[in-house]
Write a structure and sequence with these properties.
This protein is an alpha+beta fold. The protein is built from six helices and 14 strands. Helices cover about 30% and strands about 35% of the residues. Helix 1 packs parallel to helix 6. It binds guanosine-5'-monophosphate.
Length: about 240
């Protein structure tokens, strides 16, 4: 049974579960935000889409042997997860230059990277999630170098699985953001969500943008795009 509201973020609410100390309920909201909350809009049905898309992606990764917090979906907008202490790092993996990388480094959008690149950002709304290195991460995020090495290796592994999964539904995985959390036994697992809110996905043939950039840059209707992605995932992953 759903317990009390523990936390409300921009896209999700987190509830305790009565009688289960180490499990939580995530409820996905219909809100879309961009530019650290400066752009904001409600899309009816978005919570369902993010919940179900993320559930499909996590099920795929679980089957591939990646330790995650995901247990099962409970309803259209809710999922059951293992409780984890979120490590305050946004772990970004890039296969192709886009977004902040093009602005920071002057690379042209769409430039293929010779090898995937893993970056760390410090999760802080007040500071606008600054780009940091391993030393900053050790200072700020209560992690040691072996944790960071483990997270980087997991991020590369997840990237390989996700590239295969998205190519099966005719999408190119340009870049994405992961979050990791620590379970009560101290082990580190993949947490949070993976959805078009947290990934850049381009159509394999036309490079049409099929992710939150359609909202960030007013390109197309977010709900229609996310529906297409869910339908395609439903055809290849069983939750
Ligand atoms: P960039 O650094 O280019 O803005 O983002 C790189 C990738 O990470 C993109 O796929 C973007 O969607 C994701 N990302 C980075 N920061 C955030 C964030 O704060 N929230 C979400 N949902 N995704 C993020």
């Amino acid at each position: 049974m759903k317990g009390s509201l523990l936390y409300e973020g921009k896209a999700k609410k987190v509830y305790s579960l009565i009688g289960e100390e180490y499990e939580l309920i995530l409820e996905y909201k219909d809100e879309a935000t961009a530019f650290n909350g400066k752009k904001h809009q409600t899309f009816r049905g978005k919570g369902r889409l993010n919940n179900l898309i993320s559930a499909h992606v996590f099920s795929y990764l679980k089957l591939a042997g990646i330790p995650t917090h995901f247990i099962q979906t409970l309803s259209d907008t809710e999922q059951l997860v293992k409780q984890s202490q979120i490590i305050p790092l946004e772990v970004v993996v890039r296969n192709v230059a886009a977004g902040s990388m093009t602005r920071r480094l002057g690379l042209e959008e769409g430039t293929e990277l010779p090898k995937p690149i893993v970056e760390f950002y410090y999760k802080s709304d007040e500071l606008d999630d600054p780009f940091i290195n391993d030393e900053h991460a050790r200072l700020l995020a209560k992690v040691d170098q072996s944790d960071l090495d483990h997270i980087k290796a997991a991020a590369h592994k997840i990237n390989k699985h996700l590239q295969v999964m998205f190519s099966e539904i005719e999408l190119r995985l340009i870049d994405f953001k992961l979050e990791f959390g620590r379970l009560h036994d101290g082990s580190i697992v993949l947490s949070d969500e993976i959805s078009p809110d947290t990934c850049r996905l381009w159509d394999q043939d036309t490079n049409r943008k099929m992710d939150k950039d359609v909202f960030r840059n007013d390109i197309e209707d977010l709900v229609e795009i996310y529906e297409i992605i869910l339908k395609r995932l439903e055809a290849i992953v069983h939750v």
